[in-house]
């Protein structure tokens, strides 16, 4: 986990309005991911994150869960849930590209 605080005192260029998360991939590599989109399905909220340093890479979908007033990202392990949310996101992305 990074100890860097993103506030008005940090001295490098980036947009402080971004929702940036540190996500560890399957190989144990930490990546800065930016939340670019959220959507709902079956009373669950999902978020699409892009690699901040490789915005052309495919996005990753996480379920957003809340506990004790705090939100956190959860990987989707269930194949049926994964198929459902990727299909929804593909439709959303397709309609966004057509607009």
From TrEMBL:
Pfam families: DUF1292. This is DUF1292 domain-containing protein.
């Amino acid at each position: 986990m990074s100890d860097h605080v993103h506030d008005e005192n940090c001295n490098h260029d980036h947009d402080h309005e971004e929702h940036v998360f540190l996500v560890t991939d399957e190989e144990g590599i930490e990546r800065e991911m930016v939340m670019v989109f959220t959507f709902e399905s079956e009373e669950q909220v999902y978020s699409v994150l892009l690699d901040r340093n490789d915005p052309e890479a495919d996005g990753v979908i996480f379920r957003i869960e809340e506990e004790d007033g705090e939100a956190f990202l959860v990987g989707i392990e269930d194949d049926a849930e994964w198929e459902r949310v990727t299909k929804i996101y593909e439709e959303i992305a397709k309609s966004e590209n057509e607009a």
